[in-house]
């Protein structure tokens, strides 16, 4: 988890009234561009994070699970196996393309207690108290209005339900954040403040937001090693979300600068 200041996306920060919508479209575009790459390359690399989320959730047969920011569906697929045919899993993701990739995986023989739909953490498309467990792997740091997301998670959880989420750490502890921050210096300033891989490195503000919403959360840290054959492949994988937004020229500059 990284020492980036968590900026509360309070309404006063938005200079233009529809800035939140602009931000959400920008965020969705980021994930749209990398949805296939994510499936082909990062699903496997991030599997240890998914495994930690699943292990900590302690899912049992028959439970109803929401996977918020379901991406290509890795968490939801494992969850569906664990809750079995008497349970159900719903994956919700902001990006239509991510939802399509996840649905494609299910169509290729995935479990039939699993569905995916497009939606945002700030307005979860589900009724009140409809899940036993909410999982969110590597997503909450990208949510623009985390106060709303905290409220929404609390709303869809049944009383006594569980939330398990994973976020990245500080850049000095977490190379993926360091790489993306380095790459980010070569791109445009994002139209929204306070979102990005390291945005919940200090999760205290979000813990308060969860607390205000009625969720008593605690933070635990685990270290996970990633192995790469060389710097080139590490850079490609770990700076990927950010470099996908750069022109090829700026991408090259960012790479050279990080290599030196
Ligand atoms: C790093 S990916 C993680 C995907 C998956 N949970 C995993 O661990 O492999 C982050 C995902 O969060 C989604 N996302 C970003 N902001 C979101 C929001 N406000 N509501 C729902 N999903 C969001 C993105 O579209 C993307 O699929």
Task: Summarize this entry quickly.
About 45% of the residues lie in helices and about 15% in strands.
Q: What would you say this structure looks like, in words?
A:
The chain is an alpha/beta fold and 260 residues long. The protein has one domain (11-170, 199-222): Rossmann fold, CATH 3.40.50. Helix content is 44%, strand content 13%. The protein has ten helices and five strands, in the order ααβαβαββαβααααα. Strands 3-2-1-4-5 form a five-stranded parallel β-sheet. Helix 5 (146-156) links the parallel strand 4 and strand 5 (157-166). Helix 5 (146-156) crosses helix 7 (204-213). The two termini are 25 Å apart. Mean pLDDT is 86; it is low at 1-17.
Radius of gyration: 18 Å
Topology as a string of helices (H) and strands (E): HHEHEHEEHEHHHHH
Identify every distinct bound molecule in the structure, by name, code or SMILES. S-adenosylmethionine
For the sheet with most strands, the description reads: 5 strands, parallel
The number of helical segments is 10
- Second-tier CATH architecture: 3-Layer(aba) Sandwich
Tell me the β content: 5-15%
CATH class: Alpha Beta
In what order do the strands lie side by side in the largest sheet?
Answer: 3-2-1-4-5
Mean pLDDT: 86
CATH topology grouping:
Rossmann fold
Q: Provide the helix percentage.
A: 40-55%
Q: Can you identify the CATH superfamily? A: Vaccinia Virus protein VP39
């Amino acid at each position: 988890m990284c020492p980036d200041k968590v900026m509360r996306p309070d309404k006063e920060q938005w200079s233009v009234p529809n800035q939140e919508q602009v931000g959400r479209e920008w965020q969705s575009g980021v994930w749209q561009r990398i949805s296939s790459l994510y499936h082909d390359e990062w699903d496997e690399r991030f599997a240890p994070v998914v495994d930690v989320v699943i292990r900590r959730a302690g899912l049992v047969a028959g439970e109803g699970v929401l996977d918020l920011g379901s991406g290509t569906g890795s968490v939801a697929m494992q969850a569906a196996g664990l809750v079995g045919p008497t349970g159900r899993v719903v994956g919700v993701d902001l990006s239509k393309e991510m939802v399509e990739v996840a649905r494609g995986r299910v169509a290729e023989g995935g479990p039939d207690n699993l569905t995916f739909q497009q939606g945002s953490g700030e307005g979860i498309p589900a009724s009140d108290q409809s899940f036993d467990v909410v999982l969110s792997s590597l997503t909450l740091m990208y949510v623009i209005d985390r106060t709303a997301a905290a409220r929404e998670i609390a709303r869809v959880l049944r009383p006594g339900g569980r939330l398990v989420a994973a976020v990245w750490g500080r850049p000095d502890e977490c190379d993926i954040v360091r790489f993306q921050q380095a790459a980010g210096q070569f791109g445009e300033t994002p139209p929204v403040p306070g979102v990005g891989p390291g945005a919940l490195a200090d999760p205290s503000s979000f813990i308060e937001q969860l607390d205000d919403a009625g969720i008593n959360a605690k933070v635990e840290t685990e270290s996970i090693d990633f192995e790469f054959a060389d710097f080139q492949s590490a850079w490609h994988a770990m700076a990927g979300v950010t470099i996908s937004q750069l022109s090829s020229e700026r991408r090259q500059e960012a790479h050279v600068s990080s290599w030196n």
